[in-house]
Every structure is written in C-alpha cells, then in structure tokens.
Amino acid sequence: MRRTSPAALVGIAIAGAVIGWLLQVGLTTGGAPSFIPPATLYSVLFILAFGLILLGRPVRRLVRGKARRPVDPFFAMRVLVLAKASSLTGALLVGVAAALAAYAVSRAGSTATPAFWPDVLTAIGALALLIAGLVVEWWCRIPPEDRADGPGRPDQIPEQR
C-alpha cells in the first residue's frame, strides 16, 4: 500500500471546501438556517483520533522490535487501512469546516456569529484526525530489509543440480 500523498490530501480538502461552501449557500438561499456542526461532531473527531493512536501503538512496537507479544498481521493491516481512511476523511472534513467558518465570517463580518466557533472546533478535530491517520500510517511502515547479509536474496540461493 502506498503512503497517502500530500497532493491527494490537498485535493480532497479543496473538494471538501467546495462542498461546504455550496452547502451553506444552498441552505441560506433556500431560506433554511445555515449548518452549525453539533458538539458531538468535533468531540467524536477527537475521540477517533485518540483511538487511532491507541490502535497503532502495538503495531509501532512490533515494527520497532519492542513488542512483548506478536501482533496479528490482519490487525496490523486493518489499522493501516483505518489510518489511511482517517487521513482522507480528516482532509475532507478540514475543507468542509474551513469553508463553513469562512462563510460564517463572510456573512457576519466578524467571528461573533454563533456558527464560527463550532466550525473552528470541527476543523481542529478533523485536523487531529488527519494528523493521527498520517502518524499511524507512518508507524505501520515496514523498515527496509538489510540486503547485505540476507540469505533470502535470489542471487545467494545455491543452485540445485
């Protein structure tokens, strides 16, 4: 699995910003109140980021050679996939929340609007999820093998006659 590229994260964040801006414009143009993220959204984002770090720690210990117990390879792969999904989701939500905050400031002219701080907290929670995903993805990297003395290299396997 390839590491998450910064270009993909930026592209997803920009797409999220466009979606968030269009959501707010559509709601207010239709006469509905603008979307204000609930407190449960940004609190769950922080909890998910913390949980992802906790799930990645055993894999990190195994990769560094300090594990007390072996880690199931399927568990390690699931943690890696969760980390990648978290970084992509975090990038999308950072874009959406940033657009919501920018829209709130553009409409009110200041940060005094009741929608601004929940939007900022959502962006921070999404950024925490994005960073946790990238960190755990980095933790799940397998170090390169030492090729100088590895008996498994094809050129070092004796030919059988």
Automatic annotation (TrEMBL):
Q: Name one Pfam family in it.
A: DUF3180
The entry's keywords: Membrane, Transmembrane, Transmembrane helix
Q: Does the keyword Ribosomal protein apply?
A: no
Query: Is Transit peptide given among the entry's keywords?
Result: no
Its transmembrane ranges are 7-27, 39-59, 79-104, 116-140
State the name under which the record lists this protein.
DUF3180 domain-containing protein
Q: Which organism is it from?
A: Amnibacterium setariae
